Amino acid sequence: MASATRVFTRALRPLARQAGGATPRAAAQRTFVSAVAASKRAVVAAPKFAAVQTRGVKTIDFAGVPETVYERSDWPREKLLEYFKNDTLALIGYGSQGHGQGLNLRDNGLNVIIGVRRNGASWKEAIEDGWVPGKNLFEVDDAISRGTIVMNLLSDAAQSETWPAIKPQLVKGKTLYFSHGFSPVFKDLTKVDIPEDIDVILCAPKGSGRTVRSLFKAGKGINGSFAVWQDVTGQAKEKAIALGVAIGTGYLYETTFEKEVYSDLYGERGCLMGGIHGMFLAQYEVLRERGHSPSEAFNETVEEATQSLYPLIGANGMDWMYAACSTTARRGAIDWSDKFKAALKPVFNDLYNSVKEGTETKRSLEYNSQPDYREKYEKELEEIRNLEIWRAGKAVRSLRPENN
Ligand SMILES: NC(=O)c1ccc[n+]([C@@H]2O[C@H](COP(=O)([O-])OP(=O)(O)OC[C@H]3O[C@@H](n4cnc5c(N)ncnc54)[C@H](OP(=O)(O)O)[C@@H]3O)[C@@H](O)[C@H]2O)c1
């Protein structure tokens, strides 16, 4: 098992090929050269991948419900290179996902170019990551015109804002890719009305683009979901899966654009981010109001959760975490979880309604379209950073053995 993992890691080791941009026509002319290059690479890499071809498409029983899961071992690197040999992947936007997906595609040897605003924060970051202006870094329109697969990783608000300029360039034969169902699903609000003659696919990594990158570099892969919005070529599903593997996912779950966007907006506002922050704050404030010190309140609210108990849930589930704690803790936790569930379920139902009705989308579009959205977020994050709980957290973290 361990040696198979090592073999896989070595096989994924970056080649750091810097891809050049090309128009779709030029991409076709490149076919012969790419095919020769790909076949040479395949000769070198094939045995390593062949050694780990043990998994693939699987039907898994998820608590009694069978679901099909797609796994990257069906798409070894040489197959990806062959599959995308005529394509230029124009990745638009270089935020967290653009960074992770773009670098992974580049390291996988695919022909990827970046499109961002000249001299914006992303342009500078892309240069720091080794993208070269005029070679594989372009302005958005220029990149789209060179791409056969347009990977729209602009912020969701920017996808809506820039759509009038992007739409005319999405001519027949191109493929449009998203990492979120937001723009097409809420098209009444976003105005992203997609031409009917192109394939439209989605791959949404289940995590930050930073993790997409760090897991890839570690030879692992993040979980992701994929979906098809429009299939005019009959190849859309296959393309979505192949691209999902190429950007660095390990397992891919099939979904729809609607289900992806509803569950994603709901989850990040709930247990993943907003809900958990609200719960931390409520618990911390009560402890402080009842006379506990900042360090005690922080340790009992955040530190023990993130450092000890949540990783146990992640590793083996809730029952395992309960079993790893004292009978006193277990009794109270099991009793109180029902009360928390009863109190919170109406809030989660309100949240789901707000997502489905488009209220969350409207809010996101309005706020994130403001020219000074970055400054405004920085002000809000500064306020959070300065809350007593997180200042106490900084002091507690500095005392961790690894930070001494
Ligand atoms: N982050 C995640 O964890 C995550 C996970 C899964 C899926 N997704 C999805 O992936 C997509 C990208 O998200 P992200 O978090 O990587 O990026 P993001 O931070 O939301 O967006 C950043 C990018 O949008 C560009 N941008 C913003 N306003 C623009 C405008 N008016 N014109 C042109 N460019 C503009 C920025 O360029 P400048 O630097 O020039 O401003 C930057 O390159 C979204 O659909 C998101 O929902 C994100």
Quick overview of this protein structure:
The protein has 20 helices and 10 strands.
Task: Describe the structure in your own words.
The chain is of the alpha/beta class and 404 residues long. It has two domains: 58-255, NAD(P)-binding Rossmann-like Domain (Rossmann fold); 274-403, N-(1-d-carboxylethyl)-l-norvaline Dehydrogenase, domain 2, CATH 1.10.1040. It contains 20 helices and ten strands. The protein has helices at residues 2-11, 24-29, 31-50, 77-83, 96-107, 121-128, 140-146, 156-166, 182-185, 187-190, 209-217, 236-246, 257-269, 274-289, 294-316, 318-323, 327-356, 359-368, 373-385, 388-398; strands spanning 58-62, 65-71, 89-92, 112-115, 137-138, 149-152, 175-178, 199-205, 222-230, 249-254. Strands 1-2-10-9-8-7-6-3-4-5 form a ten-stranded mixed sheet, sandwiched between helices. Helix 12 (236-246) links the parallel strand 9 and strand 10 (249-254). The two termini are 35 Å apart. It binds NADP nicotinamide-adenine-dinucleotide phosphate. Residues 93-98, 116-117, 120-122, 153-156, 158, 161-162, 179-180, 182, 204-205, 208-209 line the site of NADP nicotinamide-adenine-dinucleotide phosphate. NADP nicotinamide-adenine-dinucleotide phosphate (NAP) binds at residues 93-98, 116-117, 120-122, 153-156, 158, 161-162, 179-180, 182, 204-205, 208-209. Residues 256-403 form the KARI C-terminal knotted domain. Mg(2+) 2 binds at residues 264, 300, 304. It is an enzyme of class 1 (oxidoreductase). Belongs to the ketol-acid reductoisomerase family.
